[in-house]
Amino acid sequence: MDDINHFKGIGSLAIHAGRSINPENAHLMPIFATSTFTFDNAEQGMNRFSGKEDGFIYSRIGNPTTTTAEEIIAALEAFNINDTNGKSLQLKALLHSSGQAAMTTMFLSNLSAGDSILSHYSLYGGTHEFLYDILPQYGINSLIADLRDVEKLKTIIKETPSLKLIHIETPANPTMQCIDIEAVSKIAKQHNILVSVDNTFATPYLQQPFKYDVDFVFHSTTKFLNGHGTAIGGVLIGRDIEFMKTKAHKYYKLLGGNSNPFDAFLLIQGIKTLEVRMERHCGNAMIVANLLSKHPAIAKVNYNGLTTHPDHKTSSKQMRHPGAVLSFELSGGMDAGKRFIDQLKMCVRAVSLGTVDTLISHPASMSHSGMSREDRLSSGIADGLIRMSVGLENIEDIIADLDQALKS
Fold first, then answer.
1. pTM score above 0.90
2. The pairing of beta strand 234-238 with beta strand 216-219
3. CA distance linking residue 136 with residue 132, whole number of Å
4. Residue 366 pLDDT level (bands cut at 50, 70, 90)
5. Which end of the chain has the lower number of beta carbons within 10 A, N or C?
6. Could you say which DSSP state residue 212 is in?
7. How far is CA 223 from the centre of its chain?
């Protein structure tokens, strides 16, 4: 289609991007349910395998439906951002079968034995386990620190010459801590250290890390990008196009973490409503956070939209809105948390987040159960902490359900 850089709003881009492939003038990108693709002749096959000619070969390596999803997400992350030459930023995305698969490609294609990776102490449980249980087996050293402390970051860099990559999760799961992307990236670039950002909670609608010169952005597309809980997925987006097409793509295809056409199709449909969904998600979340912060049964609310949150200013600086996820601790601890969850009538008891319905989970026994209790507590994940992904229901119904469950 015509150049998409003229769009004024990211919502229009979410609907109209990704149309470089348009078979039979289809209104919507079809599901290419095929494992392989044919060649017109032997030379064409050889040229595609050698990279001399663009074209599809085998769906583990690339597929029109997954490619379309990749183009859309890359366009959203680059929206209204210029490169160093003043031209529209170009990015390359690789769609994976899950967020963990995308993270695996990102880490293993950038790190080798003897390298070190640094991340913040508040992380998704799966990321924490990967850093400490998997990467060390490949000779990669994982470091954890409070990346909000700029002086501490400078000290670690000075003392760790093997540091190759800084991985940021902001807002962090489930404490909603926020890292100043610009500050970390600026320091990292002075030492030729790569920076990656997990943008799952924010989505490119709320936050665009590439504005701050980061190298990679990562998403679990299962969450807000899909928005309906219908498919697992993950995506890695990179600034270095050549790297993404060569080394990153090699790891992607050989590790076998590719997505599939049906899940990619569902993702494409979900992204079309990203803007309107996020507006409702975020509006509801702000109301819920304010309500819970004043409730006598609640000891603490973690939501960076509240001025009491320690990272409120950082969130306000780099996010369009604080987001749709929050966590809170009940005054009665673990037992009170269990009673609260059991009494819910509309809000859904489930892990994951970003779906149209409100999801409530218990990180200590669910998403972060693979961490030791000591690590959980040091990361701000108390035994009684409740995580809430605020959905699109009428706010009156969300409040009513929370209120009756808290009375228990």
1. yes
2. antiparallel
3. 6
4. low
5. N
6. G
7. 8
